[in-house]
Amino acid sequence: MTVTSRRAFMSRSLALGCSLAASPLVTPVTMASGPWDARLVVIILRGAMDGLDAVRPLGDPGFAGLRDGIPEAGPDLDGFFGLHPALSGLMPLWEKGELGFAHAVSTPYRDKRSHFDGQDILEAGTGPDAAGHARDGWLNRMLQAMPGITRETAYAVGREDMLLLTGNAPVANWSPEAALALSPQAQRLLERVMHDDPLFRDSIDEAIALSRAEVMEMTGGEDLDAGAMMNAMQDNMQPTREADRVGSIVRFAAERLRQESRIAAFSLNGFDTHARQDRTLPRALDPLQEAVLTLRQELGDVWDKTAVLALTEFGRTARWNGSGGTDHGTAGAMLLAGGAVRGGRVLADWPGLSEADLYQRRDLMPTRDVRAFAGWAMRDLFGMDRSVIERTIFPGLELGSDPKLTL
């Protein structure tokens, strides 16, 4: 069977309504069970979030000159930093010590300012040489270093692969928008077509197993024929079609984290704000806020064991550009949330915003590696050995001083 005929078969299957979004080839949310009680949620903010706007250094005398015309003030955090108004719904978490930030952070990526390369380096957790060549991600390498890892059913929305959790450790992926219901004859034909292609064969096997497992969960253990299975899947998909995409992802993630899963990763898009940032950034921050608040609500008591890290590939220029936006920069900010987090702080070795203090006189100067915060979170939550973090999970990274991220 040729590749062309496989694609033709796939196209006909899609035309019949058999979505293959359940395949691990399209993996927005990924989960893995583990032998610990703590939970870690990693959110990749795609597009390079402007940390200077999300967490504003209002107390820096250079900020007003760089960012004149910010239309709306947000809540004060600590007398020096202020929060973007689109994140003001998170203030109750800040006041309870369940929300914090790290500022002036970056990966080792410098100067080339490509989203694709920046995201590769962020998710690979290695140096700039990883751009375009990385084969596994730092979260998967962490799993490889731990005993007792098992595959866990996972659900996802979207059509992107996450390098972050790619690797040799067993990790499953799924999409809540997926619906894969096949007759026994179609399933046998699909298995025969894919038999000699390990990538597609394994993906289809997993997609079939995950879809059937979810239907059985929805029906209380009753196995259904293909038609009834499709109806059940379509009923389950309905909420995701009604402007609740992020909520659907996060609710499902929380459901799994309340059970066996210990790690979840997904991404949010829309942070590339080259023009009219006063309009575009709030549209990106709103889903981030919704994701954190939904996790807080849905996790229940598990929230107290959870740390959420929201990371982006690089920051943005310190000054507005001519379109009222910001261009690709260097250092930015990351968000930390959760009942396990020692929040109520903006962690920063603040570099200053005078022109001489800026990186290349245009960007916020990075003063600490964003990977160090992820590494300390792993050490705190899962007891990872420091040498394993520095040599294997983030090769070549020096963790530096302990920011004491968790309680």
Verbal overview:
By secondary structure, this protein is an alpha/beta fold. The longest helix has 23 residues, at 277-299. The strands form two sheets. Strands 1, 2, 5, 6, 7, 8, 9, 10 and 11 form a nine-stranded mixed sheet that branches. The protein has a two-stranded antiparallel sheet with strand order 3-4. The protein has 13 helices and eleven strands. The protein starts with a helix and ends in a 14-residue tail after the last helix. Residues 1-27, 153-159 and 237-243 have low confidence and may be disordered. 48% of the residues are buried. The protein is globular, with a radius of gyration of 22 Å. It has helices at residues 3-15, 51-54, 63-66, 91-95, 115-124, 138-144, 184-194, 198-218, 226-237, 245-258, 277-299, 370-382, 386-393; strands spanning 29-33, 39-45, 55-56, 82-83, 99-106, 172-174, 261-268, 306-312, 332-337, 346-347, 368-369.
Shape: globular
Q: What's the story with the biggest beta sheet?
A: 9 strands, mixed
Structural class: alpha/beta
Radius of gyration (Å):
22 Å
Strand content: 5-15%
Distance between the termini: 57 Å
Percent helix among the residues?
25-40%
Mean pLDDT: 81
- SSE order, as H and E? HEEHEHEHEHHEHHHHEHEEEEHH
Summarize the structure.
The chain has 407 residues and is of the alpha/beta class.
